[in-house]
């Protein structure tokens, strides 16, 4: 038996330490929680996805009485971007979430399905997507979606 470790690098920023463009992206993600349709979970998530050409696509979670029909904020933003600007690489995504008590104190982290969807964009464009995860305590910044999904299934074995 051998063992190896996989390390991920997470930077923890105060909001005021972020660059202006990163802070703006986080603010947009926070604002998008107002457009969330979450009558079942009451968990409102917002996402803002920046593309290489400066466009920003926004999303929020959209639920349904048939629970699996709903979609997370991250994929709502990403699929809108992919449908409207299919040839432009995403370069950064900011995510924020709040419940009835307000924004989460710990940075929100995306679900596995969203990680998988965004990772494929990263691989398709050969362009890492920086990840900004908002919490009232601070913002986690990761250099790439791959950091959140090591040992990736990347589809390269599909024929
Ligand atoms: N949700 C997101 O939109 N993004 C995440 O990263 C985690 C979960 C949504 C899905 C569902 O509408 C609600 O939050 C509760 O799971």
Molecular shape: globular
- Work out the helix count: 3
The biggest beta sheet is recorded as: 7 strands, mixed
CATH architecture designation:
3-Layer(aba) Sandwich
Q: Which residues form runs of ≥5 with pLDDT under 50?
A: none
Tell me the CATH topology. Cytidine Deaminase, domain 2
**Whole-angstrom Rg:** 16 Å
Mean pLDDT: 97
Coarse structural class: alpha+beta
What percentage of the residues does DSSP assign to strands (E)? 15-25%
The helix/strand series, from N terminus to C terminus, equals EHEEHEEHEE
Distance between the termini: 32 Å
What's the total number of strands?
7
CATH superfamily: Cytidine Deaminase, domain 2
Number of domains: 1
The helix content, as a percent range, equals 10-25%
- Overall CATH class: Alpha Beta
**What are the distinct ligands in this entry?**
tetrahydrodeoxyuridine
Summarize this structure as a short list of keywords or feature phrases:
159 residues; alpha+beta; Cytidine Deaminase, domain 2; seven-stranded mixed β-sheet; 25% helix; 25% strand; globular; binds tetrahydrodeoxyuridine
């Amino acid at each position: 038996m051998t063992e190896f470790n996989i390390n991920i690098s997470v930077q923890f920023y105060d909001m005021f330490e972020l660059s202006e463009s990163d802070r703006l992206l986080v603010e947009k993600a926070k604002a998008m929680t107002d457009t969330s349709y979450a009558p079942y979970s009451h968990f409102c998530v917002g996402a803002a996805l920046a593309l290489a050409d400066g466009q920003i696509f926004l999303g929020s979670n959209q639920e349904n009485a048939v629970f699996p029909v709903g979609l997370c904020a991250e994929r709502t933003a990403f699929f809108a971007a992919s449908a409207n600007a299919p040839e432009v690489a995403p370069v950064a995504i900011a995510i924020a979430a709040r419940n009835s008590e307000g924004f989460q104190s710990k940075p929100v982290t995306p679900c596995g399905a969203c990680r998988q969807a965004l990772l494929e964009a990263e691989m398709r464009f050969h362009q890492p997507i920086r990840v900004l995860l908002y919490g009232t305590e601070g913002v986690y910044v990761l250099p790439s979606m791959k950091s959140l999904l090591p040992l990736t299934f990347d589809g390269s074995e599909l024929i």
